[in-house]
Fold this protein.
Amino acid sequence: MNETLIKQYKDFLDNGKTERECVEQLVAQAKKDGFKDLASCRKIKAGDKVYITKMNKAIALFVIGTEALEKGLNILGAHIDSPRLDAKQNPLYEKDNITYLNTHYYGGIKKYQWTTIPLAIHGVVCKKDGTTVKVVIGEDAKDPVFCISDILPHLAQDQMKDKASDFIKGEDLDLIMGSAVPLDKNAPKEEKKDKEKSKKLILNLLKEKYNIDEDDFESAELEIVPAGAARDMGLDRSFILAYGQDDRSCAFSSAAALFDVAESGKKLKRTACCLCVDKEEIGSVGATGMASNLFENMVAELIARTDKNYSELTLRRCLSNSNMLSSDVNAAYDPMNAGLFDKENASVLSGGIAFQKYTGSRGKSGASDANPEFIAKIRECMDKAGVRYQMAELGKVDQGGGGTIAYHAAKYGMNVLDAGVAVLSMHAPWEIVAKEDICQIFEGYKAFLSLSL
């Protein structure tokens, strides 16, 4: 067991509960390891290490190989967004002496799982004067935490008759921010006119600590996530229980593999890339999602600094000749819910890298469906490196399904295969992965980056 890697992974999870925080950590590590911001480079050559970011929520890291970029890249592509709650743009309101933060859930969640657990607020508030205020409340032991209330069992007869999807309405996922002491019936008339005493108190606290006014919420990006650190799970400590392991388990190990390859000083034939994108959980949309021109623009910037005569054809050839492992997780086989899985085609915890030839739902809708020739080469690569792996699907064919960024990369004509760790309780506030799988995938990703296909 690579205990150093596991500690680094848990630290990454603790300090990277948002996309911005993940990118911030990766940039810091890149600079420490001698990577340069591509924007500061006029020319780059074999052996150079560079990175490029987009809106502080997506990043690509490159180790330049000796072969022309036209021949293609070896890419590890992951996403760094995770299901959560987002504060609305006009979020604060008071209701009967309690102040709430109004939210909109992000990604596929079971809404009832987010009630009655400690929650933290992470994000940024961008002010009109051009300053950005970083906000993290609920992680330090001295911090308060937040919570979404639920109905006590004694009064939940009607609620318990609902479907699980209707237990908690999306509009009811609002955080309790604070309260005011109810006014005494004998209070002066002037005090009784103050109908938002609690809200004003909360706003005063935000102003005092962060210099935030209520209007500043209009240009804020505040994410509500489970409060607390990643923990070892099980008496044998074989598992990790933490928020956001879909897909930060694969993002971390992809970046760690690239940094390790770069640090080794080994000259690569093919340029190696670690790509971490945003918005996968809501369809890879937006400027920082894989469905945009984000990656091809990044590669175009790279080519412009290596080739004397940049051309669109060179870019197209580079992308088409590339190979990607879509670094995303798979649903771990759950013995308590065995009927949802085809056991012979399910990934198991501690089984090593889970390769998925296709994802999608039911009739492979939304899948890229990797070529068997490419899969054979990856199998050979893993066997030579002594890496444990398994071939898997998400669940039974008609049970549901899911997608990754694979089909967005495949549109360029490159070879793409999904490759990740098995996750139990995926998309829950706290997810479970096996330490052994983190170690195996790290070694597998390293072997792939050095592969000459």
